Amino acid sequence: MVAFPEARRPGGHVALVVAVAVCYFAAGRLGLLCKLTVDGAVVTPIWPPTGVAVAALLILGVRYWPGVTIGAYLIVLSLDTPVLYSLGYMVGNTLAPLVAVALLRRAGFRTDLRRLRDGLALVFFGAMGAMLISSTLGVVLLVATDRMPSHTFWTVWLAWWVGDAMGVLLVTPLLLLFSHAQGLRPTPRRWEAAALAVAAVCVVPPAVYSHLSLLFLVYPLIIWGALRFELVGSMLCALATSVLAAVAATDGAGAFGGLSRVEVMAKLQGFNGTMALTALLLSAVITEQRHTRRSVEKACEELVEVLEHLTAGEAPPPRPAPEDADPLLRPDRRDPL
């Protein structure tokens, strides 16, 4: 994990809180560039601040939640919103990431996303479960402040919920990945990475802006990225495609042309959701299998070395316990009894 020595210095906690707030606000302004009006309410197909908030609280700790609240306040301050709605929005968008982190930690979530169970936990607890709080509270306040009619509650609620969940599914994994040192190392497959980037540039825009509905052409790129570059390859492809699809949907172009706003939102969020789930879960399965294979190969090598020492009549050298082993099972652990 990336260390943050600033947190131990005087004023370091405040500096990191401000950094979280700035990142949250910047992500919110980017998300508002692609907004749609559904039944009189403005919603965003992807709301990146939710992903930033969940990742920040997982990486830094829940004690930095004021940064999320300040960032949410800055967003509502830049918009023309009533006081009641602004307060409720701040509460909902702070409480949802906190609940997401609590649920993930309860499930034994690991931020390196090397296990399928981590991917499933992020999907069901971090995205689909916790984001029910922010979407429900936000839409209830819209109705309470007469900013939308009550009969459109479920349509707007579904669009809001999926937008918040998409922010967690697309943004959080990448931020968690780059918080680890291995996420920042250059890949040895530079030429293949360049080929994947070129293929994405050549395939994604025509697939999104074509009137023939060619969005399915993106999935081979997602699979390629997951097989060869694991999480970073698949999620970068998914994020870039989702952003471009959101821009096309906002303009009513390509595969989203000739549709009503509700139909555009349903098609866009269905496409983004299935693509994000495919990228996240497929890469998690591949990463887990490779990690298991490496562990088995290392165990076999150590077993061969022990057998060689025993054959030569020497005592085998002590083996350090693996980093992720149970501390109670380490050889240097002494029974207090």
Could you say which overall geometry the principal axes of the C-alpha atoms support?
globular
Mean pLDDT: 84
CATH architectural type of the largest domain: Orthogonal Bundle
Spatial strand order of the main sheet: 1-2
Structure classification: mainly alpha
CATH secondary-structure class of the largest domain: Mainly Alpha
Order of helices and strands: HEEHHHHHHHHH
Work out the helicity level: 55-70%
Question: What is the helix tally?
Answer: 10
Distance between the termini: 35 Å
Q: What about the largest sheet?
A: 2 strands, antiparallel
CATH topology of the largest domain: Arp2/3 complex 21 kDa subunit ARPC3
The proportion of residues in beta strands is under 5%
Count of discrete domains: 2
**How many β-strand stretches?**
2
Radius of gyration: 23 Å
| Oligomeric state, counting identical vs distinct chains | single chain
Uncertain spans = 325-337
Subcellular location: Cell membrane
Transmembrane segments: 12-32, 83-104, 124-144, 156-181, 193-219, 231-250
Region (Disordered): 311-337
Membrane topology: Multi-pass membrane protein
